[in-house]
Fold this protein.
Amino acid sequence: MKKNNKTWILFCGLLLCALFIVVLPAVSALKSQSRSASLQKDNHLRVENNAIYLDDREVYRFLPVDGGNARLGGASSFSFSKEKSITFEYTNQHIKSFLIGETPVTKELWEYVVADKIPENSDGFYFYPHTFSYKDWLIFLVRLRELTGKSFRLPTKDEWEFAARGGIHSKGYTYSGSDDIDEVAFYKGNFSYPVGKSFPYGKKKKPNELGLFDMSGGVYELTSTHIYESNPIFLNEYNTLLGKKERNEKLTGDDVKHLQFLESYICMGGAYDQPAEYCQLNMLPSHFPTESGARIIMEY
């Protein structure tokens, strides 16, 4: 009898293992397929020839950036206070080829992907959503993948900068596409708009060497690079604070704030409300906003 009980227990154990290993993943996959099918049923989006179309309208285009070696960064400084600042020097990097948005993500694409809303065909095509967090943009990217069957992501800080500088075709401009900021950017010196309103300005300025618009000024553009990854000093400070946290050592209020800062994501390019110097390609922003726009990459 005891032997039969042991056999029965062993059988039940094997059955449970099979349930977790085979049945549950299969059910999860079916649910995912069902959700994707539901999304596709009334889907108006499609990807064709490196562009996203909403019905017959092109709402977003990707341009190729050929890979190569580049000198990125710059001799700019980030000041924490009068007593403390960090200088960012140039570094030599090799960047692989990728496809990046001709502009930041537009209001039209955002509204359809996130809000299930078909926007009117108007000047709204060129509105750039710019009040969203890193988490918001991740949700947007996941849903865009579900709707199109393609993979998308945020650029790294180096990929973004490489594209903004013109890639292997760079002419070494101060701003993205020119030494004259008014030719290529909307910034504090030439633009204002009512508080709380979106603003249309895409493709109204000169593009850079790769045909990319508004990489200087306009809206801050989010990258997938943490602030602590941008500089050896930041990385050392991050490891020190993280070590204290993992050892359950007490962190001061300033320590907590600085750790949160280091774990934030870098936004690039300056913005409509920033002075010209913060739209230069060798400058990190004067602060790191928690909400921003984004220019996305489509995977090959």
Notes: Confidence is low (pLDDT under 50) at residues 22-41, 121-126. The chain has one domain: 42-298.
